[in-house]
Amino acid sequence: MDTVGGMIFEQGRKIQLFHTDATGRVTLASLCRFAQESAGGHAERLGVGMERLAGKNMAWVLREQAMHVTRYPGLGEVLRITTWPTRAERILCHRDYRILDESGQLVARGTSAWLGLDLATRRPCKAESFFHLPAEAMLAPVFERPLPELQAPLDGCPSDIRTVRASDMDALGHMNNLRYLDWIMDHLGLFGMKTPFGQVRIRHAREVRDGDKVEVRHGLTEDGEVLLQMRRLDGGREVCLARLGLRPSEQIAQQ
Fold first, then answer.
1. DSSP labels for 168-232?
2. What are phi and psi for residue 28, nearest 5 degrees?
């Protein structure tokens, strides 16, 4: 559903078994998937969807996202996802969203930054070359204050090695951004951190492809937040940075 002159887009999603973890609760990656699917639906309505960009030999690629989760709903619950663009600058187009449950209570809120990738050069295009929504039509962002900065953990921190597999890949020939979240949860689970996280921020630095080997490593801040980095084994170039916290500004509702 479109509202406010088409600048806000809404859609519903029912939590299916494949959206949940071993506890029967929706996963963080699934919440991010719902947000991204709504973003794709809105982009189509605005005339800048994947098919339109494909005609220019371009594609949307996620650069950064952040999500604060208030509650992890369970199997069978129906969610309402609302999304809207907030601004475009240089190469990035910013988009925010809220996820509510059937009673209208907040489940999660988040922000994301996307770039238009030239598929021939694998380099980003200037936002103004394909994204033409007027600045005055953009709506306010969901977060009023700046998010905590991303930092790499110190050397010597706990780590493990992952290999990109065929099941990690998407149609753009690189590892899908949602798989990074799965990798993060797998990695932290190895070190006993299986508590649902209340907040996550992740920034992607470069692509990885089928067969690439990646070191996943993490450390803790004084406040108990997780600083996580993925970097390629061949050369140590950074793949992504993430920061995760057990609690956002709101307490996660009791399960």
1. GB-TTSSB-HHHHHHHHHHHHHHTT--SPPSEEEEEE-S---TT-EEEEEEEE-TTSPEEEEEEE
2. -60, -40
- Strand 58-69 relative to strand 106-118: parallel, antiparallel, unpaired? antiparallel
What confidence score (pLDDT) does residue 135 get?
Answer: 85
Q: Do 72 and 101 touch, CB atoms closer than 8 A?
A: no
**CA triple 175-199-160, angle to 5 deg:** 45
pLDDT tens digits along 206-246: 999 999 999 999 999 999 999 999 999 999 999 999 999 97
Token pair in block for residue 139: 């709506």
Spatial CB neighbours of 18, under 8 Å, sequence gap ≥ 6:
none
182-193 core/surface letters (b: 16 or more CB in 10 A; e: else): ebbbebbeeeeb
Strands 106-118 and 92-100: antiparallel
